């Protein structure tokens, strides 16, 4: 039985990073406790507040955000943090080494129906001379992440973590320890499972409509096999499925609001999930560019996302290849 900290030390992870990940897990354990009690603890339902994303905050969005902030700002290694639920970054110790970016509770629209939700995080280093309370310090491309992961609060609470040396799963035991339960996760290259919110079909690009249309034709269509569809509406749960048994998950560009090239957020969701997916042998793309190569312009920037099994994502990319850079520039993706 290997504890998270023991495993990270075995991998020669820097002591400071082991310390920071330990702090993050203290906060996530508290979130898990609140979620386990659910209605009993009075943590379900919505608040009257709207966040910077224009979404009504669930009570648990606020509780998870406050817990992460409290634990992280207590750690002197943390120079600053940025959260999906905060308008602006929050400065920590100006001498600190790390910036932590997080979605405190992903999939929170599912909270009241007891479907899995999770905390997604991305860790960067504070660039020299930058102010950790300003957006600019955080606007680093995904390739600069030193670690990324999520804790999925499902039947069990599972941490999926990468520090750039593969992806490993750790399960939260009743002792309060995260124990290594799956080592060097690899996503199968082929799949027969896709995940997309079909209700947005009419807003997609033609390329995406053609791709999904071909999947729906099953063994009688050009893809020559029958596909199954899943939509949990909780990215963290979908990515966990993809990491565990393969699949393709996409929240593509859609034309509902031209100012937003997709629903998911690059810094809080796109980049950390892309690092996990690439580290497990998969691909993560906007359909035109690898997500981790995007140069972020704004802290709350949105992105189109298509990720998962290598061969399936490559197949999707061929539908977009012809329209290429011109279309990507036009749609700002
Ligand atoms: O309700 P929709 O349009 O299907 O969107 C679902 C997507 O939105 C999200 O819930 C957005 O994340 P938040 O819950 O953190 O806002 C993703 O987890 C999920 O993939
Ligand atoms: Mg989210
Ligand atoms: Mg969220």
Automatic annotation (TrEMBL):
Keyword presence, Hydrolase: yes
GO cellular component: cytosol
Pfam families: FBPase, FBPase_C
Cofactor(s) the protein requires to work: Mg(2+)
Binding site for Mg(2+) 1: 84, 103, 105
Gene3D superfamilies with a match to the protein in the record: 3.40.190.80, Fructose-1,6-Bisphosphatase, subunit A, domain 1
Superkingdom per UniProt: Bacteria
Fructose-1-6-bisphosphatase class I N-terminal domain location: 7-183
Binding site for substrate: 106-109, 197, 263
Enzyme nomenclature, EC number: 3.1.3.11
Binding positions for Mg(2+) 2 per the UniProt entry: 103, 106, 269
One GO process term, biological-process aspect: fructose 6-phosphate metabolic process
Cross-referenced InterPro entries: FBPase_C_dom (IPR044015), FBPase_class-1 (IPR000146), FBPase_N (IPR033391), FBPtase (IPR028343)
Cofactor note (record): Binds 2 magnesium ions per subunit.
Pathway: Carbohydrate biosynthesis
Keyword annotations of the record: Carbohydrate metabolism, Cytoplasm, Hydrolase, Magnesium, Metal-binding
Predominant place of localization: cytoplasm
Subcellular location: Cytoplasm
Domain Fructose-1-6-bisphosphatase class 1 C-terminal: 187-320
GO MF assignments: fructose 1,6-bisphosphate 1-phosphatase activity; magnesium ion binding
HAMAP family: FBPase_class1
Membership in a protein family: Belongs to the FBPase class 1 family.
PANTHER family per the UniProt record, alphabetical: FRUCTOSE-1,6-BISPHOSPHATASE-RELATED (PTHR11556), SEDOHEPTULOSE-1,7-BISPHOSPHATASE, CHLOROPLASTIC (PTHR11556:SF35)
Complex and partners: Homotetramer.
Name used for this protein in its record: Fructose-1,6-bisphosphatase class 1
Species whose genome carries this gene: Neptuniibacter caesariensis
């Amino acid at each position: 039985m290997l504890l998270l900290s023991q495993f990270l030390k075995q991998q020669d992870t820097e002591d400071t990073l082991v310390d920071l990940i330990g702090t993050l897990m203290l906060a996530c354990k508290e979130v898990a406790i609140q979620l386990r009690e659910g209605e009993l603890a009075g943590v379900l339902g919505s608040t009257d507040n709207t966040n910077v994303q224009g979404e009504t905050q669930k009570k648990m969005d606020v509780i998870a955000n406050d817990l992460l902030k409290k634990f992280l700002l207590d750690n002197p290694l943390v120079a600053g943090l940025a959260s999906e639920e905060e308008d602006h970054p929050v400065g920590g110790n100006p001498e600190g080494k790390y910036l932590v970016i997080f979605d405190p509770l992903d999939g929170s629209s599912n909270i009241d129906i007891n479907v899995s939700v999770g905390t997604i995080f991305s860790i960067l280093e504070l660039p020299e001379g930058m102010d950790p309370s300003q957006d600019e310090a955080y606007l680093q491309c995904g390739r600069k992440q030193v670690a990324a992961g999520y804790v999925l609060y499902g039947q069990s609470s599972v941490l999926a973590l990468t520090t750039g040396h593969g992806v490993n799963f750790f399960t939260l035991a009743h002792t309060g320890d995260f124990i290594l339960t799956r080592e060097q996760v690899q996503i199968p290259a082929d799949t027969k499972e896709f995940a997309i919110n079909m209700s947005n079909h009419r807003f997609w690009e033609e390329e995406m409509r053609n791709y999904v249309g071909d999947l729906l034709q099953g063994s009688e269509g050009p893809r020559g096999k029958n596909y199954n569809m899943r939509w949990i509406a909780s990215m963290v749960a979908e990515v966990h499925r993809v990491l565990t048994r393969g699949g393709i998950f996409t929240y593509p560009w859609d034309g509902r609001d031209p100012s937003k090239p997709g629903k998911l957020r690059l810094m809080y969701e796109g980049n950390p999930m892309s690092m996990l997916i690439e580290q497990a042998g998969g691909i993560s793309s906007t359909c035109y560019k690898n997500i981790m190569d995007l140069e972020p312009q704004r802290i709350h920037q949105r992105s189109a996302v298509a990720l998962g099994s290598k061969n399936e994502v490559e197949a999707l990319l061929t539908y977009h290849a012809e329209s290429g850079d011109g279309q990507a520039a036009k749609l700002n993706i």
